[in-house]
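ERR on first pass: missing label on line 2. Operator R.T. fixed the label and resubmitted. Corrected input:
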Amino acid sequence: MNSTGSVRVRFAPSPTGFLHVGGARTAIFNWLLARHTGGVFVLRIEDTDAERSTDEMIREILDGLEWLGIDWDEGPHFQSRNVDRHREAAERLREAGRAYPCFCTVEELAAEREAAIARKESYVYGGRCRAISREEADRRRAAGEPHTIRFAVPAGETAWEDVVHGRTAFENRTIGDFIVLRSDGAPVYNLAVTVDDLDMGITHVVRGDDHISNTPKQILIYRALGADPPVFAHVPLILGPDKSKLSKRHGAIAVTAYRDQGYLADAFVNFLALLGWSPGDDREVMTRQELVDAFTLERITGKSAVFDVEKLEWLNGQHLSRLSGREVAAIAAPWFERAGIGRLTEPQGDGDWFANLMALVKTRSRTLHDLVEQARPFFPGPVEYQPDAVEKFWQDPSAALAALAVAVDYVESEDRWGDLEAMEGRLRSLAEERGVAAGKVMQSMRVALTGQRVSPGIFETLTAMGAALARERLAAAREWLSRRVAGD
RNA sequence: GGCCCCAUCGUCUAGUGGCCUAGGACGUAGCCCUCUCAAGGCUAAAACACGGGUUCGAAUCCCGUUGGGGCCA
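pass 2 clean. output:
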């Protein structure tokens, strides 16, 4: 904690790829912690790998965060702009005798490494240059001899109390004097991160499990720099169905791909938050605010989790269902535009019609993509009869024709559109008069009106569609079926 | 290979020594509702990796084995 006692966290992606599911969850946990505690969420782009970092990827990451609704209070800071601070820190370490120049050549180091492998030992730098006197080192540096700067790792062990894993310890001899500044003066990752986190006053480092082995080095640097390390919380990784670290192999992993597949940001955030964290009670469908209120680092599990798309779909459906028709309308509008069935083709140009339609289809849809398909028949134009619908409800074309005859008469005589009960009563009595099962009429009509096997209740469908379009569709269906009968 | 992390239903999880005949959720199966499909309601099958301890008592603590994963090489 810093002097004011407030929480400062950061999300520090490197722009060498998209914002993927794992990174997104790390961002979410950090953001949740900041919002829960009233702290500050800092965004830092770790773009020191100039070769692999691109502006396009930075854009992608910001897009992803924006879609998720993860907003930052500071930044984005760019790590590449802090290189002077990193070098300065390396120099300070050197001055304090906590780091030293190393003149070993790549060949020498490679030989050392091979020897270690031959002995079946893990390789750590032996520390030869540590013994070089200050005077000699200065002289050789001044002479321009190439060198790196290495951290002088003390004897003993380095441990910390990880919020998710508990006490975690590394023996320092397994770490070895690691490089802090390359021979070209470029700071090494662990130095850059530590210096940046220190400069930015980060109090809690919440990041992926894969950084555990970096942590002792960073702690050593904090201490050597005379600073207290922050609180560390290492979140377990997200796994693919085959239980290996989630990667491109497992399909769409850029979060924007989920956006494009029709998932709701709130549902996606909810889902990722539940991967490795739980509120402690049985709640699962949670709003953003509920997540913020319930979130604590202590409730993060230490076990890695498999990404289960089916549960995501369910959760998305839940979120969709809980939204009002009007809210769904606002979110889904661009989807309809893109599908070419936007406002221009809307039969009744008021927003209410669309919002009401959304209210009808939302509980039947799991994604926005489903939603569009469900709603499509309500817009003008011909419908395509889906094979499964024909198979199920129009198996006997003559019978379907008979049912539709009743449907046509019903539609012609109906004058209480919108009164669902009255409509049903009227249709049922008419069907009974004609000696046709009411259910058959409704089901045949469903296919005629929507071309689909599935739709909202038939009277809601009729009302939303309007009499004119319904007549058109019924006529087309009778024609289609007649051809079928004739063709047999 | 070395170091580190992890281990409850297929999956996400609750569980922090007795409330556990292990709870919830997704998925699966069945039933109810019903004009279809969802939603909703009810029910079912489904787990404490294994072996030793510690303890009156262990899913919970300790050790080992096995298995998975990560990082480094």
